[in-house]
Amino acid sequence: MNYTAIYFSPTGTSEKSVVSITRELAEKAERRDFRRVDLTTYPAKETKVKFFENDFVVFGTPVYGGRIPKVAAQRLGNISGKQTPCIVTVTYGNRDYDDALLELADLVKSNGFVVQAAAALVGQHTFGEIQVGRPNASDEKEDQQFAKNFLKALKKIPCKGNAKLPIKGNRPYVEGGNGGTFHPHTDDTCTKCGLCVKNCPVGAIASDCRTINSELCISCFRCIRYCPSQSKNMDDANYIKFAKEFSQKLSVRRENEYFLPQK
Ligand SMILES: Cc1cc2nc3c(=O)[nH]c(=O)nc-3n(C[C@H](O)[C@H](O)[C@H](O)COP(=O)(O)O)c2cc1C
Ligand code: SF4
Ligand code: SF4
């Protein structure tokens, strides 16, 4: 079996969990390494990969408005399987994942994958100060334990087709998957290093490193998180007020949920 982690992850939380799970599976199978397919950056819109029966893929995306981001769904459309077993995961910012996990499972199934397990995981929210630092070391342990439990479950219930998984959600899915309305500002400390231009998932930052196309920007805040000189920010009164209230509203911690094959 060859193991691959595939993710769209602007601020790195989905990536972290997908990698923990994939690494654990590969180690248990005594594989020295696993492959990563990062669908986050703009050039990844052209990435096309085919998988086969001897592959195993772990997918991960964030939740945007209760759905998987539309841009991630488009890029995942270029990833096909041939009865390829997989695990699907979504990472959400402590509000809810609504129909996102169901949507991701449906999407990869329609592209030739067989879904054997799933997880809805909590990560630090893009906006405000919500579950800061998650997934943390204890979430990572839970992810690793999930991978171990999955392998144990497979021994008891060897599943060839899609596993019976109690994933919540409804079809048609809730309206969502769009970006937000917050677009970062750039202050005078910008060194024009170009990192934000290169890393923006949707190519929304012009070559002056400052002008953001608000039609394209999905408010993922990747440019804020990755700027080495903290020159990109959301220092405006509207956002600061929203972030404070939103952080209070979502202050009660939610737990990761893992779905294993059932009889
Ligand atoms: C536009 C947008 C919409 C979001 N919608 C939700 C949501 O519906 N529910 C939720 O719990 N978190 C929501 N989040 C938070 C992200 O799902 C969360 O921060 C996730 O960990 C980000 O993943 P990443 O680090 O892989 O980019 C949203 C974030 C953004 C930017
Ligand atoms: S990453 Fe930061 S410093 Fe570099 S160009 Fe972008 S805003 Fe400027
Ligand atoms: S410009 Fe918008 S879409 Fe691009 S990285 Fe920044 S927040 Fe994300």
Automatic annotation (TrEMBL):
Iron-sulfur as UniProt keyword: yes
Protein's name according to its UniProt entry: Ferredoxin
Sequence ranges assigned to domain 4Fe-4S ferredoxin-type in this UniProt record: 182-210, 211-237
Iron-sulfur is among the record's keywords: yes
Cofactor: [4Fe-4S] cluster
GO molecular function terms attached to this record: 4 iron, 4 sulfur cluster binding; metal ion binding
Pfam families in UniProt: Fer4 (PF00037), Fer4_4 (PF12800)
Listed PANTHER family: PHOTOSYSTEM I IRON-SULFUR CENTER (PTHR24960:SF79), PHOTOSYSTEM I IRON-SULFUR CENTER-RELATED (PTHR24960)
Keyword tags: 4Fe-4S, Iron, Iron-sulfur, Metal-binding
Lineage, top ranks: Bacteria, Bacillati, Bacillota, Clostridia, Eubacteriales
Primary role: Ferredoxins are iron-sulfur proteins that transfer electrons in a wide variety of metabolic reactions.
